[in-house]
């Protein structure tokens, strides 16, 4: 589902099998730590219904369901939702979770006690107006007195530690990765070269580098306020220039 006729980088990249290959070894322990951090502040007894916005293959949705939440995972990628539903078939708490396609550029049809947007699943559009509109949609998915958790990259850390070039092996592919910062966004360009045929495929990622004060301002516009910010999945203190993550906890007023 698309909000317009022009395909964006994330509409093609997230739906390709090469995306799964490149990120096949994501740290599941980090997902568990993050779910526990959410549980600590917003327990399911008080915030039972959760929407996991841009859920991907369901890594965080499954961890939240294990902790007792009733989870709805949504994602733009048809392939991701198909994979999540396949994984759900052998999931112990399958009755507590559902997955469906949704483009977060479009408003949500219902609201929830808790919304989560995790693992830098935001800032994909090149313009501030578009990203502001998406944040408003995310905010409107939260009930009054509800909560929102946004796990975003820390711009200060990215700027200080950017690895400009990298080569990886991903199955039968060699992946050449270049990163750079331009127009207040971090860009990642990837070239997949098949080891036998030499066939090459290219993809890119782009994320706007929004600082904490940008999120604070957007939150105020939408009836939310930040109650705490963490700098790591284990609950470390947030430090502007050295924390790897910017994990923001919001509450919505009446």
Structure overview:
The chain is of the alpha/beta class. It folds into two domains: 9-155 and 211-252, Vaccinia Virus protein VP39 (Rossmann fold), CATH 3.40.50; 158-205, no CATH class. The chain has eight helices and eleven strands. It has a seven-stranded mixed sheet, sandwiched between helices. Strands 6-7-8-9 form a four-stranded antiparallel sheet. Strand 2, helix 5 and strand 3 form a beta-alpha-beta unit. Helix 3 (28-41) crosses helix 4. Residues 1-6 have low confidence and may be disordered.
Level-2 CATH architecture of the largest domain? 3-Layer(aba) Sandwich
Per DSSP, the total helix count is 8
Binned strand content: 25-35%
CATH H-level name of the largest domain... which superfamily? Vaccinia Virus protein VP39
Structural class: alpha/beta
Question: What are the key terms here?
Answer:
254 residues, alpha/beta, 11 strands, disordered N terminus, Rossmann fold, globular, seven-stranded mixed sheet, four-stranded antiparallel sheet
In short:
The chain has 254 residues and is α/β, with parallel strands linked by helices. The protein has eight helices and eleven strands.
Describe the secondary-structure layout:
Layout: H1 9-13, H2 17-22, H3 28-41, E1 49-53, H4 59-66, E2 70-75, H5 78-88, E3 97-101, E4 112-117, H6 128-140, E5 142-153, H7 155-161, E6 165-170, E7 173-182, E8 185-194, E9 200-208, H8 212-221, E10 224-230, E11 245-252
Parallel strand pairs: 1-2, 1-4, 2-3, 4-5
Antiparallel strand pairs: 5-11, 6-7, 7-8, 8-9, 10-11
């Amino acid at each position: 589902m698309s909000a317009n006729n022009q395909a964006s980088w994330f509409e093609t990249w997230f739906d390709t099998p090469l995306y799964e290959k490149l990120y096949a070894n994501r740290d599941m322990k980090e997902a568990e730590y993050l779910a526990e951090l959410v549980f600590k502040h917003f327990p399911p007894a008080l915030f039972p219904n959760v929407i996991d916005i841009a859920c991907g293959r369901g890594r965080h949705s499954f961890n939240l369901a294990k902790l007792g939440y009733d989870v709805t995972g949504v994602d733009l990628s048809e392939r991701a939702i198909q994979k999540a539903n396949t994984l759900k078939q052998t999931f112990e708490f399958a009755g507590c979770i559902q997955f469906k396609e949704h483009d977060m550029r479009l408003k949500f049809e219902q609201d929830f006690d808790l919304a989560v947007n995790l693992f830098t699943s935001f800032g994909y559009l090149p313009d501030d107006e578009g990203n502001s509109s998406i944040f408003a949609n995310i905010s409107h998915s939260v009930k009054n007195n509800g909560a929102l958790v946004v796990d975003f990259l820390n711009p200060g850390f990215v700027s200080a530690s950017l690895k400009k070039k990298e080569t990886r092996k991903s199955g039968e592919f060699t992946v050449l990765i270049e990163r750079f910062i331009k127009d207040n966004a971090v860009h990642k360009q990837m070239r997949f070269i098949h080891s036998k045929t030499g066939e090459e495929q290219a993809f890119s990622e782009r994320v706007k580098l929004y600082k904490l004060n940008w999120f604070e301002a957007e939150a105020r516009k939408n009836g939310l306020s930040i109650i705490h910010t963490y700098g790591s999945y284990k609950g470390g203190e947030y430090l502007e220039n050295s924390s790897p993550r910017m994990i923001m906890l919001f509450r919505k007023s009446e």
